[in-house]
Amino acid sequence: MNEALVVLVRSIIAFATLFIFARLLGKQQVSQLTFFDYVLGITIGSIAASLSIDLESRAWPHWVGLAVWTLAVLCIQIASTKSTAAAKIFIGEPVVIIRKGKILEEAMGRMRFTTSEVLEQLRNQGIFDISMVDFAVMESDGQLSVLLKPEHRPATVQDLGLEPQGSSMSAQLIYDGKVIEENLKANGVDHAWLSKQLQKRGINDASQVFLASYHPGSQKLYIDLYEDGIDTSTKKAD
Amino acid sequence: MRKFWLYTIPLITLAVFVVVMNSGDYLKKPLTTGDDFPYYLEQVEQAVMREDWSAAFDYSEKLNSAWAKVSPRIQFSVDKDEMKNISVGLSRLGAFLKTEDRSQALAVIAEIREHWEHINE
User: Fold this and answer.
1) Nearest residue on chain A to B15, judged by CA atoms?
2) Does B68 touch chain A (CB under 8 A)?
């Protein structure tokens, strides 16, 4: 048996399978990790590693294990979206631990959450004074969501009585030296306009540009060139 | 059309992987000349039973040659230990044929057959 070749083939199978299964499970696996999701991720990764390099057993049983765990997670996700009761069982539900500035000790006790842990989570969000907090909710992934009291919240455009600007998203017109045609059309601009903008900044060709990002609301074009003229070498202090 | 390929390509990829991982049972069958492992094993056994050591040697060489042809194509879907056991068994069989030890040779042939039949489990 050529072990290196077998490991190569099994690694390709493990990698591609894990990639497909991870895409199947979707983005929420990454962004909303509960403890169970975390453990699931480790388990699935461990099975994939065994599939890749454990030559003492066949690849097929490991692959089946990987598929079963992925299917189980998928079933939980589908059940959670279809049924509120299932979501409560599998994902849990958020718990209010501070309401109208008052700490709910019973809720904290149920979550086995200590005061120092609450204060630590508040400090992580830049809140060093608990009296500023109106509501705090412990989410199912263990994160603390905080609503400050009105007098401590950042001022909004509405508070200042100002006229808000229309919101829009930036679009990349040039990336890695190449013009992105769809974004030009989507933002109502064309090559002639783009060339004129580049020439205003002394740029003759789009291939010199690493990134050109256009914000339709402000009609501003941000340009970053490959040649920035910035010294990136690190020098040791004498 | 794009959505069609978005689903089809991963499904085809997974199907190919499943086929590769389960190909052992099919690929261990004789596909070319001189790779009929069970046949040569049977011939060696019969030669040993009638104590025709010259024929046993000839067939054991063909058996080793068959194993050399089959093992590279089944290595991706079978247990490494079973392959190792077969290789070790073939070496022991060669030694027992040299010493013309009938009982030990037959025992090793039975072992090799057992490993061969369960190589894909």
Assistant:
1) A17
2) no
